[in-house]
Design goal:
It is a single chain. The protein has 210 residues and is an alpha/beta fold. Helix content is 16%, strand content 34%. It has three helices and 13 strands, in the order ββαββαβαββββββββ. The protein is elongated and about 55 Å long.
């Protein structure tokens, strides 16, 4: 079972290919309700302080959890915690990357914590798709995104390998103070192989807005 969490921020529906199916849990966090509606999705849970939601016509079948505007958690964190409490360990979070920088940075921190806790999670808004990789390896398939970047989180990330790309790396070091080495790569085949021996990186697929 997977949870789809729709949060605020600009999205490009044409490039969002992840959609809930079957028994997936579908949650909207505040103005994420508006994004879900743009995508034709039907959240069964709506939560947040509702300070930014535009469409106030919420069906009676939707579970609504309203919290005070003055709170210790962002609406995104509330929705993530709700999914985790339901025992779900696979999260697709739509939105949350464009708009207020403080929310974007907070969401990236949430993504890192989820991965380090053994939860599979990805943020996706149609302009960027972001995962976090910690001392592990993964495959990234070809998609509509043009660029593939590795952004180091630790001071030094060791044993970095990336293959199937225009600028491959083998047993490389990425440094947080000089992250340019991992930026703006491009796939040359159907997928890229990424491996990190020690440390954490954000894997960012991106494209230039039209």
């Amino acid at each position: 079972m997977r949870a789809y969490i729709y949060v605020g921020g600009a999205i490009d529906p044409a490039y969002i290919t992840e959609h809930p199916t079957g028994d997936d849990l579908v949650i909207a966090a505040d103005s994420g309700w508006d994004n879900a509606c743009r995508l034709g999705e039907h959240p069964t849970v709506l939560m947040g302080d509702f300070d930014s939601i535009r469409d106030k016509k919420i069906p009676e079948s939707v579970e609504v959890y309203q919290v005070p505007a003055e709170k210790d958690m962002t609406d995104t964190q509330l929705a993530v915690d709700y999914a985790l409490q339901k025992g779900i360990r696979d999260l697709v979070i739509i939105g949350g990357l464009a708009g207020r920088l403080d929310h974007t940075l907070s969401n990236l921190t949430i993504l890192r914590h989820l991965t380090q806790s053994g939860v599979h999670a990805v943020f996706h808004d149609g302009f960027n798709r972001v995962r976090f990789l910690q001392s592990n390896s993964t495959l990234i398939g070809r998609s509509a995104y043009t660029y593939l970047s590795l952004i180091p989180v630790d001071e030094v990330v060791k044993g970095v390998e990336i293959a199937g790309v225009k600028y491959p790396l083998k047993n490389a070091k990425l440094r947080r103070a000089a992250p340019s080495l991992g930026v703006s790569n491009e796939l040359t085949g159907n997928c890229a192989f990424i491996s990190v021996r020690k440390g954490g990186v954000y894997i960012v697929e991106s494209r230039d807005p039209k």
